[in-house]
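Each letter names a residue; structure tokens follow underneath. Both lines appear below:
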Amino acid sequence: MAHFCTKCGTAHVPGARFCDECGKAVNAATAPAPAATPALPGVKRRHVMIAGGVLAVVVVAGGALAWLLKPEAASASSFSRAIDAHLAADEAVRDKLLCLTNLPYQKEEIRVASYDSSTRQWLDILVRGGLYNAPVEQSSGGWVAQSQFVYALAAPGKAALHGDKLCVAKGVKVAKVSGYDQVRDLGVQQVAMAKATLTLTDEAAWFSKSPDRALILQRLPDGDLQVRLPMALVDKQWQVIDEAQMSQAAMTGAIGKSSAAQGAGMLDKLKSVFSFGGHPAVGKWQAAMGNVLEFTSDSVINNGTSTKATFTTKGNTVTIAPEGAGEAAMDIIVSDDGSTAQISMGGMRVTTLRRVRD
């Protein structure tokens, strides 16, 4: 069958590639058009993109949630944060650390007997700080006349008062902390005993300028600005807790797990875990005259001489009954923070003790 060129009409044999007359290509195979990729509908493409974004958000959120649910590790930073928050939130706690209550500072005048040299020396420090006027010596009158010194509160002293207290600063924060490496498990509750060295913030002007700043610090309940605070992991964060909560943790295994009454001796048991043990007066104490007394769980050591004794505790008061004739019983009233104590005999205060820290 003859084939013809579509341009000039000249016949050509089957299988010829070009026309012999005009040179036009003949019998050229038409290349098939590439198949078009069907386009995704716009709505479907948006759904794919949104689904990918949601998956990424879920992955990130899951990681963040796992991080948030992870309990806070016991560390210097976590303990410092917890203690700083505790001190900032509780004004009464700050006052115990920063304020002096050894005299009735709210009175316009303080009268001191001439023989009370210790109180006079302290008030003379406050005179140098500008809080009191120089003392005026007067006679007490009465059947037995005695000389006494009258210290009148000056205007700066009135401005420095916080109620009936004389405070050296408005704030305090952690400078150094330890104890985070000695966490104990009480059932499901983790607890620790933190020892923190504190530093003052926002000091009172009279105190910061006083030439007797170091001596004034020594008169504070914690003159070395070191405190021991019970800690517990509560709601996945370390927090400062009180002794009642410590006792509850020892009984129930968790803070807030039960409202059961505190068991007798449970707090002492918990404290023994942290090498506290015994009664509140256990340890070394320095008396006002400089001598050092040491109380153990069953003895009193005075100037190297040990005397066996029976200790009875009621709240913060420890009654000591030495064994043997000629030894009188005495009471030791330990302050709430355990840094100072008062010795009394027959209801009469004998001297003040200050704890000697190792």
In short: The chain is about 25% helix and 30% strand.
